[in-house]
Protein 1
Amino acid sequence: MAVDYDISPLWSIKGGAGAVYLQKTLLTEARIGPAWRVTLERSRAGTTFHVGYLRTFIPSFGFGGAVQSQDVGVGFRTALFHKQHLYLDASSVFRDNQPLTGNGVIADPVTGLVEQLPLRSLRTHTALGWEPQRWVRFEIFYSVVQQTSLRAGGYLDRNRVGFQIVTSKPLRMQ
């Protein structure tokens, strides 16, 4: 179920709720749990700001098991120099993944016990772009991903800088 509501001409709120069903695997029991999302958005004169929260359950395909995931995100997009074709787009998301069971990813070679670790991530993405047509954008971007499993040696820090061409063709379905 999803609901979008315009609070005013500038502000809107969007939300959704449902249930997630995870099938039984060799490592986990079958589970059903609530999932929801909520986003508050402000739009004015080519500038959009949003902040949101998401809670859901995600199967861990690589190692078995499942995690409860919670995301808090914030972002904005604005036209530069009062030109709609030039823009700045930036966002950040903090994600906290907690294992639902003690089974999963780290195997102790002595005891053979397997432990799934929590994972915390911070992702930021900034793009400076030019959109000459609706179907093509040229962007210079900078992305940062920082993750930790809250264990010694379990920290990842990745920085990416690049240029990308984004294309899409609008499609009308009848």
Protein 2
Amino acid sequence: MGRVALGISYDGRGWSGWQTQPGGQTVQDQLEAAIASFVAAPVNTICAGRTDAGVHALGQVVHLDSPVSRPESAWVRGLNSALPDSIAVQWAMSVSEAFHARFSAITRSYTYVICNTAVRQPLWAGRAGWCFRPLDAHIMQAGADLFVGEHDFSSFRSSQCQAASPVRTVHSLVVEQRKHLILVHLKANAFLHHMVRNIVGELVLLGQGRTDLEHLKRILQARDRTLAAPTFSASGLYLTQVTYPADVLPNPPADPDTSMHNLELF
């Protein structure tokens, strides 16, 4: 038996999130079915971060304990041959038993894509959030700067969040405009349930001029979810990268650029 780490990407449209459900319509269910077929035994997987229904991933990381030994390249080819088109293994690595996809992670990065057009764009349906009112990316960046650092994010966590503490450290939060698209890049040690989508919802109100920076400061300090904006759509959210200490998981040799900073978007 050996522990294996996998890099997974998936299109969240059509899936009921990451975590297994009785109906089997989740990314974890599909992945574990492919693994069971590949190793001829049921195997449980642990992911770096559970994503909700409709949320996408470019850099999800998973670990499993395999009952058989297989070359790393065989894991990629074998699993992808059994997975649906919307889910794919990008890389596989043998790791020590000390590696844990969730607990060994030191940072997680997400990007939220907003399509800012007066009329909805069908090609972005399910792939981006939509805001028909013009957004000011510069004021959104000023608001984003308020979130950087260690804060109590109670105003931006779901009522169903099960995290023991609402305190998180945001390393960076960058608002980038590309023609009709606005990308919000977030990097933190960890995120609370719905934290990214709730922050984006507040930044969208700010970018529309429907609120201001002083109001945003008060919401962050109030630690009261009822004062903040509604949770923004899941459609535009992408888990882009999870990082680990080099001695636990060195850079995967086939890991693509998942940052979305350099991703070509039409």
Protein 3
Amino acid sequence: MNESMEFLARHGYWLLVSAVLGRQACLPIPTALFLIAAGALSRAGRLSLSGTVGVAVVTFLLADLAWYEAGRRFGDRVLHFLCSLSRDPGSCVHRATSAFAIYGLWTLLVSKFVLGLDAMAAPLAGAARIPPLRFLVFDSLGSMFWSTTYAVLGYIFTDQLGRVAGHVIGMGAILALTVASGVGFHIVRKVTAGDASCVSSNLHHSD
């Protein structure tokens, strides 16, 4: 496990950025594990606890701003896209919009602890035309609350670092594979679309 912990110490911040971005892209990445490991490494003096939380919060804000803007521009279409993989997309959208209608911006303070709502809160705020500054304030508080909780847990339970490190290294490999697969799929789709366009064009000219 020493090699795993050394790897985490060297690349901890970048792994954390990748994990947060993957989580906000709706990938099944257990980002909490990365934060717990970073918190444990902070107690060992290999990482900074404030730096760990700061990196996580800034990354959350950047990702959430993109979703906020998408919600502001495209409204319900973004929500239906995010719910498209659920068993009942219509019910998924209804539950999320109902929660946001009741609690408003306060939803952002706890949304990252609620599976499903975490991905919907930012685009819901954008669709509701919440002012960007207010969104940033509440989203940063929610991100800090969530990030600090898990980083401090790791800081307290340092004895479990070896076990967590093994899981994180495994998840890091899965994350890299997932991202690579996504990029590969996107390239193949573009190439296929380009080939189809060429074929259509050639048929049109032959006619």
